[in-house]
């Protein structure tokens, strides 16, 4: 009923004689081209099947406006890359500064603390979950071991530390920051896992370090020399309770890769014959990490006496160390991989996660399925673009849906399998995104679309960029300037990046503005995916891939906060329905549905790849059954099971549309019959009481005209892109029946749900209008 009611109006001129304006030109079915989703536009308006030259021009202009943000981002990115420091920083965030070598250079020496911290001697044991107090108690009672480690550190980094001290004394910390970062990068690998990991964590924190310093730390390599095989085999036996050759029928003679925490062998399970990867933790890692944390925290406490050091070193270390300790527990890593795979298998079966063999996994030994493939960043396959799209969807699903976020997405962890799927490796470092953060990011995007800067600043508080209780009014003008420069058409060439950086630096100086740790990881993840995509597609813009997923969340998630975000996206601050925003959201959803089918999602029947698919209907006529109709994905979605929430959301607009269409059509019929000519005759006739004569012909109010124009825009968008519409564009008639035909399988159930509610709301609307008209005539 809803489809027929709104479809009929598309075949007529507006009753008022006004043409549909420029914003009503429809945009049509997404098509695949060179691994990307593009949109093909066909339009018709007053005359069925006729596209005017003006409409074609306006469609082109409108498409440019819709894509304006993405185009501006590309131009801004190009200008940023002209700056040497910013370009290097961007390469680092994309993981392009990392070495692809599986081992460190031969002259690298890793210095570890070789003491027994297991408690085997009857003494206390180092905690296996991060607890600063217990760690301090443990190492505080072992001053000799601590002194030995300090001597090691000073022997390697004495010059560096004395340079830092001199910078503090002479107040040249900022001036010598880059120089010290270079020195740090050159020595940190030999200091062990804690320093390597901490350096990598700092390399994505622009709120703590300058771009130059970040660039140097991004060159850190986690690859270190391997440790002897006999030690690794002994550790396997100690951890799993059997000699390695009773568990694995084969094991590579030497490790295939070695990192600061452990090294990896390729093997085969004796029990099942499956090929596996066996990761063995490096000896004395826990001991070395904890003593280093103990020393760094002591140093952090001492640095609090110097006001020139604004960063809270103790807080930063505690924040990072808790996650780092999780990486040391391979049981936790295996469980993370299993949980991640469960979360992806229904929606994104084209994302591959190595199966964990929990029977052969312990705190220091991890056995997982061996994944064949090549690094996505190095692949020359034609489907790399599609797999990047899948990767963007996957990371956005983690970020905005499951909240279980893979926090170590460097290029080596993203693999293209031989059968064209995307494999994700290494689940030691994960972070949890809260509901407040998930919904807050979507709300912030909705506010950014409408340039509601007051709301955006409030979003920064919710997202932990700004602490609660801070006076936000002085921040808004600067942020408004930043966003306006970035979003205005042609704004990229007008941006003064030095001035922009100064504005942002002033915010961080004047206010406790920081980048939350979880968001730094998000920046890195998106940066890595962007870096891979840009190799094969220089026109890649992350907003083109991200907004479609956000549109999908808005249309399918019935949580109160996302319902509110959807309403704001379409209605804005004014609360007035914006057909253009409505179409934008649906068009973005179509882009998402097309992307979700790539990388094998369609063949594997992924849940996200099924959006907009409705059950087939057995027609009595074979000819009708074999005639395939390509209805827009957006229209199919609205009538599908997944579209139930959205149907309810737009019900009021449907009622308004039916009411306006009915009044327009009734007015058209009465004018056609000449009844409107009776108005001068009947208008003088008195009516008992104080009520004056009613209008015989229904009045099409300005509100009705707005609603009718909105309906025409939406129907134009939803109805076109089909073979019948293309026929209409060539001069034929639009066959609404063809669209309805494909919707037949779901129309009965939808009608059962919606018709009574539409009837009730329509009756209420008509009654309210009648009462208003009566009140006016009194």
TrEMBL record:
It comes from the Eukaryota. Residues 250-583 form the Protein kinase domain. Pfam families: ABC1. SUPFAM superfamilies: Protein kinase-like (PK-like). Belongs to the protein kinase superfamily. ADCK protein kinase family. This is Protein kinase domain-containing protein. The lineage of its organism: Eukaryota, Viridiplantae, Streptophyta, Embryophyta, Marchantiophyta.
